[in-house]
Give the backbone structure.
Amino acid sequence: MPRPTVLVASHYDRQVIAEPLRRLSAWADARDAYRGRCLTREELLDHLPGAHAVIASDEVYDEAILESAGHLTMIARDGTGYDAIDLDAATRLGILVTRAPVLQDATANTTIGLMIALVRKIAVADRDLRDGRWNERDRWLAPDLTGLTLCVVGFGQVGKAVAKRAAALGMEVSTVHLADLALTSNEAGTSDDIDKIVAAADIVSLHLRRSPQTSRIIG
């Protein structure tokens, strides 16, 4: 039986995924298209023909791209979403689409890290120190996260992980499920419910899949 060909379009650092690639190469011909970024449409059209499966990042797989890949049977996303994949076309063409919902901890940790950096003005202090502005410490004075109110909009795996970490830091946490929102937009394209939430919270963290329902949900 011939070995399948797998296009590795993931832009993860190859040192990070060296072991999974080694295991993949034991049973398939891995066609590595590493660029350190998402492949362009032209690059994808160049690499995709003949591939039976793709390990994909965020590059676009629209109907035309999928139809050009005559042997493709599977697209395996290296992340949680598949917004860039035409699922209707994939279903029609018999192409299985999978995802890897295992990044919630890393995403939640990064979210909390960004909150701390923003509220505590870490980036400002870092720039000042590098510029020799040692004595302007009043520019670095900032509140702590403890006691601040965080509203998590979208309470899936990532939202729950963020809320758990925020509560451990002593933040007041409120959560909003997408199904609970009254998405009646005004002329500016925002929801009145969201406006009230933003006004009541010190920090709002959005964890929503992009869709016509969620696009421009704030601003």
Q: What stands out?
A: Helices lie at 18-25, 41-47, 63-68, 87-92, 104-119, 122-130, 157-168, 192-200.
